[in-house]
């Protein structure tokens, strides 16, 4: 009741009751309400406040400190503040792009590790925001539980997807085989242990908070972990399926920014006041052209085009194969109006370039919605950036927000239109069946193949 | 502010007071329990009585406590009888019932979210939640159920496209919903909208995935559906009985009515019940065979040669128990061994699902999820212990029982390239020859 009168006594701005010293009151508020009759309701209703107040009442989370390295600061100390910011962003952009090229050069395994590293960092950033929003940094067990769930879900996804590619490696080690074969059961058992720990850790005054953090963790896992594993699956399909989408998104970001900078006039959406229609449309066309050209360049090299395989003799990943039809030049006859423009009858293209148009279109039209989603999220929780990892750019999530949906789209696109099922996986599953079932399947396959003329009916050999 | 002063001035006694005190800063409204307390003058915590008039009159003479007991008892029997009727009607009806339960559970949890966040008037949101439910259901149908309806689907052209490109279509539909959400963000309500978005997705994760795993188990054989669900129900009832008669030591602070005696008694009773039930059911083909869609008769059939799991085998009893029972060997179905694992899970881990739901109800200050079943609360209240059971059974089957589905493998094979097909065929051939399954003579058939 004391808190009641205290809060009733200081009306906040705009008619909403939100006294400015809310942040500091967080700890003090608890002590005040200790003396009231129903402690649980008062503490929980603090979170009820969190639920139902409108956004204007929510205090800003103070921005973290500036992490620009000293070197850059000294080098740019002569310039004015605005250009300094521009230069820092520019330098960091180039640094990130060069790092990207370096890792591509180092191969698919390093890329996989990079993707995992980014996943862990993104997870960490979002969870930290959740802690700040709910002021629950001191909840018992919760930090441990979040990381534990991250581990379980990663293990599950590894068992589902990556283990197929490492099949030969896994066959050699007995324990690895066991871990992979029963991965569903083991990861589910581990998850259950975490679930029971959560239930046992529910503390009387903090139920709602704990449930919120539980849900926050799960939604974060859904966003970050599934996407990162889809990225890795795309990567194993062929590095080009990893590079072209990501580059398209980055290109769209950069060209939309440039077009907006030079020609921008009409605002695009209230959520992100800096985006303009001119930037959006200009970015769309340049991204399609960029994707087209990048696909043309990359399709020539086996290194990018072949599915990644693990060879047990060499003990590493190799990308060597006969390029599939997608990556062989074909002649397309131009439609009449293009014929007139380009004065050519046919053009040689890789079929993959047609697909790249679809990918770039998605990257420029729907990708930005991922960015708007992240902007809305930042406004909802009153944060300027997800974190301060990259000076001038914010956190890792800020760089990857437009990529959210791209990885899923590429994966869905591949499974729907490009790739059939993985042959080695089909074979694996065949070998696990009962012998009678195998025999039945064998007979069915044989008749099918003979029908299609792939297999000649054999004479006695 | 006027609302604030009004409430402090009112000073009702007892329970309503804590509802009032927590509402000091609420301009938008109150928590779920608050809205209940405003709706009914007294008593504020008990939701409206949905008991049918019939029952009310029949029990009007008994005291209130026994009346409640009788209402719960009758409804329990009604639900169990309903369950039997559905089983009798066959797998298709079961599937439809599972879908309905899923939709009702989704509706209940979403309504709680609306009450918690007072966001019932948010633009678009109700539509979006149902829309997402539809998309995710379509996706899961495409993933699992269409394999079983394969022959039916191949015949109809629109169905075939819907099934083959289900991932792409459902993802497109989901994206549309996502973009609508982003476009519907309203300036003052960002946080609320994100909360509802998160709430919807967590609910989808819990409710829809579980229900599709249940259907997946069902297609494996009705026994894989009936035995787990019955074990959970039996554990509920047995733990309650043991707790009622022998209960002394409280089990967990979250649910003060649960006791250790009930827990342990329920465990043993459920294991025994599971053994007996699986013994009875393993004898009948209609429970044991995988459900298949027969395109000649255009319906589901359960007709097959029972697998090894469901054929009586003899087990030698270990010496310890031999002396007690006096039998040397016992004849059991191997499935009964598995049923011990299922019952153990149902009695040991299943209750954690119940504790989770209790914690959830306490966190959001609600007594029951909804008022659908008189005396019992909402559908979710009945199914809270089943949360994890369906997933466990599915994981168990996938890990230990069933191999991959042969017809699905043939399907996948047919979509491969010819050279890949040839490669697989030759590998299979050499494998079978190694195993001695294939001889040169059989080759010529």
Automatic annotation (TrEMBL), chain A:
Enzyme Commission number(s): 2.7.7.41
Superkingdom of origin organism: Eukaryota
Alphabetized UniProt keyword annotations: Lipid biosynthesis, Lipid metabolism, Membrane, Nucleotidyltransferase, Phospholipid biosynthesis, Phospholipid metabolism, Transferase, Transmembrane, Transmembrane helix
GO cellular component: endoplasmic reticulum membrane
Biological process terms in GO annotation: CDP-diacylglycerol biosynthetic process; lipid droplet formation; phosphatidylinositol biosynthetic process; positive regulation of fat cell differentiation
Membrane topology of the entry: Multi-pass membrane protein
Location(s), subcellular: Membrane
Entries under InterPro entries matching the protein: PC_trans, PC_Trfase_euk
Keyword hit for Nucleotidyltransferase: yes
Coiled coil, from the record: none
Start and end residues of each stretch annotated as Disordered: 1-67
Compositionally biased tracts (Basic and acidic residues): 22-56
Function recorded in the entry: Catalyzes the conversion of phosphatidic acid (PA) to CDP-diacylglycerol (CDP-DAG), an essential intermediate in the synthesis of phosphatidylglycerol, cardiolipin and phosphatidylinositol.
Similarity comment: family membership: Belongs to the CDS family.
Protein name (record): Phosphatidate cytidylyltransferase
Gene source species: Equus asinus
Automatic annotation (TrEMBL), chain B:
MF terms (GO), sorted A to Z: phosphatidate cytidylyltransferase activity
Compartment(s): Membrane
Keyword flag Lipid biosynthesis: yes
Membrane topology: Multi-pass membrane protein
InterPro entries per the UniProt record, alphabetical: PC_trans, PC_Trfase_euk
Example of a GO biological process term: CDP-diacylglycerol biosynthetic process
Pathway(s) annotated for this protein in UniProt: Lipid metabolism; Phospholipid metabolism; CDP-diacylglycerol biosynthesis; CDP-diacylglycerol from sn-glycerol 3-phosphate: step 3/3
Enzymatic class: transferase
Transmembrane parts of this sequence: 69-89, 95-117, 124-141, 168-186, 193-215, 221-247, 259-281, 337-357
Official protein name in the record: Phosphatidate cytidylyltransferase
Taxonomic source organism: Equus asinus
């Amino acid at each position: 009741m004391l808190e009641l009168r205290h809060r009733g006594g200081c009306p906040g701005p705009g008619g909403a009751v939100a006294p400015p010293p809310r942040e500091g009151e967080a700890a003090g508020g608890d002590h005040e309400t200790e003396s009231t009759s129903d402690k649980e309701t008062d503490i929980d209703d603090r979170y009820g406040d969190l639920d139902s107040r409108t956004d204007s009442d929510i205090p800003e989370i103070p921005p973290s400190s500036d992490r620009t390295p000293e070197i850059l600061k000294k080098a740019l100390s002569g310039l004015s503040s605005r250009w300094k910011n521009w230069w820092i962003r520019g330098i960091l952009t180039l640094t990130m792009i060069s790092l990207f090229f370096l890792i591509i050069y180092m191969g698919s395994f390093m890329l996989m590790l990079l993707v995992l590293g980014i996943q862990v960092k993104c997870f960490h950033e979002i969870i930290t925001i959740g802690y700040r929003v709910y002021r629950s940094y001191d909840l018992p067990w919760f930090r441990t539980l979040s990381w534990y769930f991250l581990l379980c879900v990663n293990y599950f996804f590894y068992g589902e997807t990556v283990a197929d590619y490492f099949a030969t490696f896994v066959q050699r080690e007995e324990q690895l085989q066991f871990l992979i074969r029963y991965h569903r059961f083991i990861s589910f058992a581990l998850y259950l242990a975490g679930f029971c720990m959560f239930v046992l850790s529910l503390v009387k005054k903090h139920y709602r908070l704990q449930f919120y953090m539980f849900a926050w963790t799960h939604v974060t896992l859904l966003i970050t972990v599934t996407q990162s594993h889809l990225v890795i699956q795309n990567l194993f399909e062929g590095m080009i399926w990893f590079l072209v989408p990501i580059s398209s998104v980055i290109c769209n970001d950069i060209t939309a920014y440039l077009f907006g900078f030079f020609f921008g006039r009409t605002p695009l959406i209230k959520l992100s006041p800096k985006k303009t229609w001119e930037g959006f449309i200009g970015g769309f066309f340049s991204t399609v052209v960029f994707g087209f050209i990048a696909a043309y360049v990359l399709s020539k090299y086996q290194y990018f085009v072949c599915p990644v395989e693990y060879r047990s003799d060499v003990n590493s990943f190799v990308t060597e194969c006969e390029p599939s039809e997608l990556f062989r030049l074909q002649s397309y006859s131009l439609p009449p109006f293009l014929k007139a423009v380009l004065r050519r009858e046919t053009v040689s293209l890789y079929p993959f370039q047609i697909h790249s148009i679809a990918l770039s279109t998605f990257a420029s039209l729907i990708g930005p919605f991922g960015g708007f989603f992240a902007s809305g999220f930042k406004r909802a929780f009153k944060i300027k950036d997800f974190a301060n990892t990259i000076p001038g750019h914010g956190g890792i999530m800020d760089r990857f927000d437009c990529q959210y949906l791209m990885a899923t789209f590429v994966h869905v696109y591949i499974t729907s239109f490009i790739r059939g099922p993985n042959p080695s996986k089909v074979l694996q599953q065949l070998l696990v069946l009962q012998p009678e079932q195998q025999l039945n399947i064998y007979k069915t396959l044989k008749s099918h193949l003979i029908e299609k003329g792939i297999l000649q009916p054999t004479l006695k050999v | 502010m006027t609302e604030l002063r009004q409430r402090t001035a009112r000073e009702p006694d007892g329970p309503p007071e804590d509802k009032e005190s927590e509402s000091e800063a609420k301009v938008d409204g109150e928590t779920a329990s608050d809205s209940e307390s405003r709706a009914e003058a007294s008593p504020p915590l008990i939701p409206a009585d949905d008991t049918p008039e019939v029952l009310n009159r029949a029990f009007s003479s008994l005291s209130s406590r026994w009346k409640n007991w009788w209402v719960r008892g009758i409804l329990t029997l009604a639900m169990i009888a309903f369950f039997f009727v559905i089983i009798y009607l066959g797998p298709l009806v079961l599937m439809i019932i599972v879908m309905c339960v899923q939709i009702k559970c989704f509706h209940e949890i979403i309504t709680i979210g609306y009450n918690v966040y007072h966001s019932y008037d948010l633009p678009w949101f109700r539509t979006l939640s149902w829309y997402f439910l539809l998309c995710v259901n379509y996706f899961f149908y495409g993933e699992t159920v269409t394999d079983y309806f394969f022959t039916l689907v191949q015949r109809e052209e629109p169905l075939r496209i819907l099934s083959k490109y289900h991932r792409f279509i459902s993802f497109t539909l989901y994206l549309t919903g996502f973009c609508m959400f982003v476009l519907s963000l309203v300036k003052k309500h960002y946080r609320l909208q994100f909360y509802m978005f998160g709430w919807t997705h967590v609910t989808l994760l819990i409710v829809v995935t579980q229900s599709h795993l249940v259907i997946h188990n069902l297609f494996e054989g009705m026994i894989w559906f009936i035995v787990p669900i019955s074990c959970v129900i039996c554990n509920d009832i047995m733990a309650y009985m043991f707790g009622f008669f022998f209960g002394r030591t409280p089990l967990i602070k979250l649910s003060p009515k649960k006791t250790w005696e009930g827990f342990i008694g329920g465990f043993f009773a459920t294991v025994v019940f599971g053994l007996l039930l699986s013994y009875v059911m393993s004898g009948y083909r209609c429970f044991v065979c995988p459900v298949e869609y027969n395109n000649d008769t255009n319906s589901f059939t359960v007709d097959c040669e029972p697998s090894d799991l469901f054929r009586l085998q003899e087990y030698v009893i270990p010496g310890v128990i031999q002396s007690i029972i006096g039998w040397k060997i016992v004849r059991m179905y191997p499935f009964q061994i598995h049923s011990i694992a299922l019952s153990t899970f149902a009695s040991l881990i299943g209750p954690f699902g119940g504790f989770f739901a209790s914690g959830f109800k306490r966190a959001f200050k609600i007594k029951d999820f909804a008022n659908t079943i008189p005396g019992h609360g909402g559908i979710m209240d009945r199914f809270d212990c089943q949360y994890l059971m369906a997933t466990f059974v599915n994981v168990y089957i996938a890990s230990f029982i069933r191999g991959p589905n042969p017809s699905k493998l043939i399907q996948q094979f047919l979509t491969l390239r010819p050279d890949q097909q040839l490669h697989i065929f030759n590998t299979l051939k050499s494998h079978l020859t190694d195993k001695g399954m294939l001889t040169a003579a059989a080759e010529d058939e």
